[in-house]
Amino acid sequence: MQGAPIGVISRGSYIIDIMNSLPYDLAVPGNHEFDYGMNQFYQLSKNLTCDYISCNFRNLITGKLVFEPYKIISYGNVKVAFIGICTPETITKSKPSSFMNNNGNYIYDFDLDSSGKKLYDSVQKAVDDSRKNGADYVIVLGHLGGVVDATGPWTSSMVVQNTKGIDAFIDGHSHEVIPSFTQKNIEGIDVPITQSGSRFAYIGQVTITTDGHIKTELIDPVDIKEKDQKVTKIIKEIKDSYETSINVYLTKTDFDFEAIDEKGMWIVRKNETNLTDLVADSILSESKKYGPVDISLCNAGSIRGSIKKGNITINDILTIIPFATYVSISEMSGQTILDALEMSASKYPENNGGLLHTSGLTYSVDPMINSTVQLDERNVFIGISGKRRVYNVLVNGEPIDPKRRYNIASNSYILYEHGDGYSFSDSKIIQSNFALQSDLFIEYLKKFDRIPEKYRFSQGRLTFEKSKDNNNRNEHKRSKNNTDLIMKFEGLDILSSNEMMEMNATKEFLFKVYRGNEPISEITHLSFEVIPESSNDTVAEFIFDEQSETLKLVAKKSGVAEIGITYMVNITLSSNSNIISETRKEGIYTIVVHHKISAHSEIISDANSIYDNKRLRLLIFMLFILTLFYNTI
């Protein structure tokens, strides 16, 4: 029910009005459907003219599912079952209090367990029941994610691997652009998984042809020339009703603020940016009006958009911070803060809406150390079992004291409600829910006639680099004679951490040596040892061409691979007879290889021919549009 200002202002009701103007047949709740509380969700679901379905959203008091697990729709003499799945992470990826009673006990559940078995069993039961009731095809509509960035055992890929009888999986939640990814089910049968991104990056279409084939494709909205006049009119009327009040000028900026890259991939969920610094500073600065504050924390998932250079309005702020989340101040120990930072760093290098951005505090993360964070059955932090990834934690320039008490300003979602799995166990409330996070941001921006130059770039508050005491084979070594030289494969440092490539594509990175910003030409000897690494070298891998001294990234077939490279280089310069050596590890990069925009997978079926194929294409086309409304983790 989110959707930038149009969702925030109406607490979801405008979204329902727009959906009701379209011929949707089905909807599946996403995690942010519950952001306005369960009472509002139930009211909105009653107002929605199509049916909600979910096979794993249940009331723990009655033991019954909240909605029907599936719906069978007939097309001619062929029956197609659509099964709904909510992400089990909804418990911590929405407001956990929405699923509790007044005593703080959970009264709703989404089959959240550490093994995934509860979810797999619920899905399999729905598949089996729908087949018994005559379904010729079973299509899953899931809000799970799971090819690149989703975590845990509840991904679409894992559900397919641990079930049978699913013919195709239309997914959401992780904002990935997946024309077609094939995953084998428990019987070794290929099942296509597809997802159309977010923010109308693409419109997905799945077609079951008359000969039993299933084809998935993504349609660029640019290619759709005609607008639906009825829907356009409704959206215009809604926007006209509130636009004057939110198009209020605040300040201006001479540079962009980044949350999402040009490919639509989240930056703030893996790295600090100038926008995360600005938002965190606004929380720290404005919270001091309500009480003493040392540090502010901001979870990456609370930031939902970028800012382009030019004028900034209230509308921009409600787009960036669309959630009605309040800010509070709590007192806690330095040790509790250190534990929270470990939770923040636990998923790196994966996308993480719980990644903490800071003001008044800086920290470093060693990605070479595996996280040892321990979680309970609801994915809430309970402790650390081994070595810590986080180091060099400074509070206002001084090392953090684990025993000292600090005042922290942050949104109540992570401070009190276990949002993103946080547990500030020894915290004491100083000021509770005194202002909306978006309001604090607005007030901070009003202080500036123009955004200060210091925000042009990120300020190094969060870094990912190997700590000095972590000695392993990936150690980055520099000779004393190499302190002023930079050696790198040109362009590799800007390769996206979630790179999308088409089959048979190749990217090349030429090795160069720089002194400062200038390339040098005084090399008299150069030798390499290159060790490529790939989780699936049949999908993609690095190949080193010794003759041209070029590193090549080769995409071979559709699928996903995590790849990296370690290289050892020895250089002799004409001005220095000593051999200069360096060892460096690059990566790990997640490479998603796909066909050009459309792809298909064949499903063999004994079903009779589909007489009403045109209507079926329209139905699934509309279901894909629906996933875009709910794709808002």
Structure in words:
- The protein is of the alpha+beta class.
- It has 3 domains: 4-220 and 597-630, Purple Acid Phosphatase, chain A, domain 2; 240-464, 5'-Nucleotidase, C-terminal domain (5'-nucleotidase,  domain 2), CATH 3.90.780; 477-594, Immunoglobulin-like.
- It is built from 13 helices and 36 strands.
- The strands form 10 sheets. Strands 4-5-7-8-10-9 form a 6-stranded mixed β-sheet, with helices on both faces.
- A hairpin with a 2-residue loop joins β21 (390-395) and β22.
- The protein is globular.
- Please indicate the percent range of residues in DSSP E strands (runs of 2 or more): 25-35%
Low-confidence stretches: 471-483, 597-622, 624-633
Q: How are the strands of the biggest sheet laid out side by side?
A: 4-5-7-8-10-9
Q: Percentage of helical residues? A: 10-25%
Q: Note the overall shape.
A: globular
User: How many domain units?
Assistant: 3
Largest sheet data: 6 strands, mixed
Our measurement of the CA-to-CA distance between the termini, rounded to an integer number of angstroms, reads: 11 Å
The residue-averaged pLDDT reads 83
Per DSSP, the total helix count is 13
Q: Architecture of the largest domain, CATH level 2?
A: 4-Layer Sandwich
| CATH level 1 name of the largest domain | Alpha Beta
Fourth-level CATH superfamily of the largest domain = Metallo-dependent phosphatases
Q: What do we call the CATH topology of the largest domain?
A: Purple Acid Phosphatase, chain A, domain 2
**How many beta-strand runs?**
36
Computed over alpha carbons, the radius of gyration is 26 Å
User: What is the multimeric organization of the chains shown?
Assistant: single chain
SSE class: alpha+beta
Protein name: Metallo-dependent phosphatase
Domain 5'-Nucleotidase C-terminal: 269-423
Family: Belongs to the 5'-nucleotidase family.
Organism: Piromyces finnis
